[in-house]
Write a structure and sequence with these properties.
This protein is an alpha/beta fold. It is built from 6 helices and 4 strands; from the N terminus they run βαβαβααβαα. It has one domain (about 10-195): Rossmann fold, CATH 3.40.50.
Length: about 210
């Protein structure tokens, strides 16, 4: 979406201590496929704090109801998007970027507090106060174009933009060969999105309906 708007792309991946690296491999492939000028991966060891099943502290939930649960799941990583956006903000100042894009979604998601519009609005305000660019009257915008879209809308949009979904990865708990489990929240939300969009998922081979 950023490329379609004419932005030059600088892609940032964070190795934050997640229990699998398949998503990092996917990020490399996607950044290459969409023509990023630069793709940088940085290490921030959030696993040293614990507090999330995604960094080895607790069990990744499987087969739970996707709506109406209420409690924030064990896959929430404390302050993860705050850390990610802070790193992106630092790099954005260095390369003179006008905007930071983040793919959070507040419709079909697992209930994370740092995927909400209020959080993004607050961070954009912080960015205007905490950076030289902001002080000099060149504040960066924080863009979350997927924020209010359903997974089906996202799937259709990506397909329309020519994204190869076979390069992507969603699973919280893939096997040793990187194959998705099909049972975690992320796998099931992805599957529902492809099903409702009427598009076959090239990663799983799930048929159109």
């Amino acid at each position: 979406m950023a490329r379609a708007e004419g932005f030059e792309l600088f892609a940032l991946t964070v190795r934050y201590g997640q229990i699998h690296r398949r998503e990092v491999e996917a990020a490399v492939a996607v950044a290459r496929a969409i023509g990023a000028t630069q793709h940088t991966a940085v290490d921030v060891d959030l696993a040293s704090f614990g507090g999330s099943a995604l960094i080895g502290d607790g069990v990744i939930p499987k087969d739970r109801p996707l709506e109406g649960v209420g409690a924030i799941p064990s896959t929430y990583v404390p302050a993860r998007n705050t850390v990610f956006l802070s790193l992106a903000l630092a790099w954005a100042e260095v390369v003179g970027a006008e905007a930071i894009f983040i793919g959070v979604n507040a419709v079909d998601y697992s209930g994370y507090p740092d995927c909400r519009p209020e959080f993004l609005e607050a961070f954009e305000r912080l960015a205007s106060l905490a950076t030289r660019a902001g002080v000099e009257g060149r504040p960066l915008s924080v863009r979350a174009p997927l924020l209010r879209m359903s997974k089906a809308e996202i799937v259709r949009l990506g397909a329309g933009l020519g994204l190869d979904y076979g390069l992507t990865h969603s699973c919280y708990d893939p096997d040793t060969d990187g194959r998705p489990c099909g049972r975690c929240d992320s796998c099931r939300l992805r599957a529902r999105g492809f099903e409702e969009a009427g598009i076959q998922d090239p990663l799983t081979g799930a048929p159109r309906t």
